[in-house]
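Support request from a user on the community tier.

User writes: "When I paste my structure tokens into the form, the page sometimes reloads and wipes my input. The last time it worked, I copied everything first. Here is what I submitted, just in case something in the input itself triggers the reload:"
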């Protein structure tokens, strides 16, 4: 119940922020390390995803048996960042998430999630730094 109230509050906030156009949102494929990007170039992006790694794109976050579809995207006016509402899914569990994505550099994004994840639970955390994988395309 608390998650839905938080989602409603953040959604109301996001509606007051400028809605991002497709040209303003992130482009390309992002992984959680430059080493993973190199592996995706050497092998395939699908192989990296199949190993359980998260892939970030303008559509959302993908992994094996896990995904977050981006529903609403709003660009901040004072910083190179976006507020995103997402609908996430893992086997037997569907939940909302609210994310902030900050452009640290043209090739690096920092993602923060309002979802709390217990490290021992085995749940997937969306948060972290993601790196642009130049030359890697969606499977």
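"...and here is what came back when it finally went through:"
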């Amino acid at each position: 119940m608390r998650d839905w109230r938080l989602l409603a509050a953040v959604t109301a906030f996001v509606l007051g922020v400028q809605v991002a156009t497709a040209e303003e949102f992130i482009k390309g494929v992002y992984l959680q390390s430059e080493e993973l990007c190199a592996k995706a170039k050497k092998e395939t992006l699908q192989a990296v995803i199949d190993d359980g790694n998260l892939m970030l794109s303008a559509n959302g976050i993908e992994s094996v048996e896990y995904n977050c579809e981006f529903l609403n995207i709003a660009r901040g006016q004072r910083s190179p960042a976006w507020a995103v509402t997402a609908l996430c899914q893992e086997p037997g569990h569907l939940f909302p998430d609210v994310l902030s994505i900050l452009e640290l550099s043209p090739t690096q994004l920092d993602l923060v999630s309002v979802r709390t994840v217990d490290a021992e639970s085995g749940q997937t955390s969306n948060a972290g730094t993601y790196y642009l994988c130049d030359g890697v395309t969606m499977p």
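Agent notes: The reload is a front-end session timeout and is unrelated to the input. The chain has a mean pLDDT of 84. Helices lie at 2-15, 34-42, 45-50. Escalated to web team.
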